[in-house]
Amino acid sequence: MLQFGKIAVIGAGNVAYTLCNVMKDKGINPYCVFVRDKNKAAQVGEELGVEAVSDYKKVLESDFIIISVNDDSISDVAAQLIDYKGIVVHTSGTKPSTVLNKIARFGVFYPLQTMSKNRKIRFDDVPLLIFANTEDDLATLKEFAELFSNNVIVCDDEQRKAIHLSAVFVSNFTNVMLGIGDKLLKEKGLPLTIMKPLVMEMMEKSFETLPQKALTGPARRGDFATIGEHEKMLSYKPDELAIYMILTDYITEKYNKTDEEL
Amino acid sequence: MLQFGKIAVIGAGNVAYTLCNVMKDKGINPYCVFVRDKNKAAQVGEELGVEAVSDYKKVLESDFIIISVNDDSISDVAAQLIDYKGIVVHTSGTKPSTVLNKIARFGVFYPLQTMSKNRKIRFDDVPLLIFANTEDDLATLKEFAELFSNNVIVCDDEQRKAIHLSAVFVSNFTNVMLGIGDKLLKEKGLPLTIMKPLVMEMMEKSFETLPQKALTGPARRGDFATIGEHEKMLSYKPDELAIYMILTDYITEKYNKTDEEL
């Protein structure tokens, strides 16, 4: 705590909550949490066990500010902090660090993980993607991040944007695939949980080798009889059919080469 | 072994290999494994530690046959077994059990898992989807399956077909999403492994609650500014852009309702 001074967190969403809790787990009590909506401040303060404020006075007394609000609100918050002397970071995957560049010392502290207010996650292997506009502050930020995770990665705005886009595919879109799988099973009275061993093994295998080496299934095998049957089964679900077809075509086109070409 | 008699396995692919190894782990030595290609039989026999044969004589001496060949070859194999008196099952997710109905006693033994010859998997939670054309044989098959897994599910051809189609979405297509994510990271010199904590947490969360409740990201939030940026970033990759757009539209259309509507 002393080392990094007084830490203020701005925001009361999933990421702000998780960060406050993770800090407290390490014995670092945030100096205050800023909650824009006055009517919610008391509740947030109580839930987090941190002093919650709705004006910037106390925030400006801190040494280090973590802005953890919706992407679109970051610049509004930054406008309040122009004369601030400490380090200010945001936690966004997409917004460039430069959205904060009217503040003297700025950076990014982006935890690459999906977070919910009420869900505890293992934080020690969560990649923390950090950036700061001076080498000294980057060193400080790195030390801070390493309190929480073994997986601290310094990366620039371009890299972080690519990581965020990649995360949409590997996290959001894989989730959609589970959603469609669930829907198809429900129609036959079956629970999605029967898929868990398959999904987990496929994920492990994909990370151990390479995704394309782990791929199996009718499209990978070029088994057009099965593909035709699947398309027939999906004919009453045009949206899911369209997704089936575009992904099957993608595999057929990109993957069905000899191993050397892959 | 005695209880189920002599067991013959037909095939030398990933599933046949895994099943032979799983049986041996439980002290059940397959009576023989049938390998169509004479030139490969010796090698397969040696690798599996099971007698490998290339004619049906020894297979027909068995009490129970597991056909584990390509979907398209199942009926050819079945034609060789018309007068067989024991139980014959295939291991296909898509082919109906009736592809074996010229044999008196037939069924299905479909392990819902992705398998590779050289990869050990935990088999005890793999769903084994079974079916037999008589109640007695179904009971026998169930007892056999329960030797290997705590997760034996009796299901008919229609259910199994739906499960297989669902598996294409939750396993093959999620794999494709990891492949695209990997490609995007590689371009910035980053390894896919940084995504593992995120992906695993998202999967756990999706199975614990419901996929649609676990979904986050720009499409779910209706964050069209970020979506627009992502589309710009993908503009030089038309195939990946098309996938991004169709899945983003799908989320926007199906998910962006109030919680009650979900």
Question: How are the SSEs ordered, and which strands pair?
Answer:
The structure is a homodimer of 262-residue chains.
Chain A: E1 7-10, H1 14-25, E2 32-34, H2 38-48, E3 52-53, H3 56-60, E4 64-67, H4 74-79, E5 87-90, E6 105-111, E7 128-132, H5 135-146, E8 152-154, H6 157-186, H7 196-208, H8 211-214, H9 218-221, H10 224-233, H11 238-254
Parallel strand pairs in A: 1-2, 1-4, 2-3, 4-5, 5-6, 7-8
Antiparallel strand pairs in A: 6-7
Compute the number of helices of chain A. Answer: 11
State the separation between the terminal residues of chain A, measured CA to CA.
50 Å
Unreliable segments of 5+ consecutive residues of chain A: none
Using the alpha-carbon principal axes, give the shape of chain A. Answer: elongated
Largest sheet of chain A: 8 strands, mixed
Could you explain how this protein is built, in words?
The structure is a homodimer of 262-residue chains. With 262 residues, the first copy, chain A, is of the alpha/beta class. Chain A folds into two domains: 7-155, Rossmann fold (3-Layer(aba) Sandwich); 161-261, ProC-like, C-terminal domain (N-(1-d-carboxylethyl)-l-norvaline Dehydrogenase, domain 2, Orthogonal Bundle), CATH 1.10.1040. Chain A is 47% helix and 12% strand. In chain A, strands 3-2-1-4-5-6-7-8 form an eight-stranded mixed β-sheet. The longest helix of chain A is centred in the middle third of the chain and has 30 residues, at 157-186. Chain A is elongated, with a radius of gyration of 23 Å. Chains A and B meet through helix 6, helix 7, helix 8, helix 9 and helix 10 of A and helix 6, helix 7, helix 8, helix 9 and helix 10 of B.
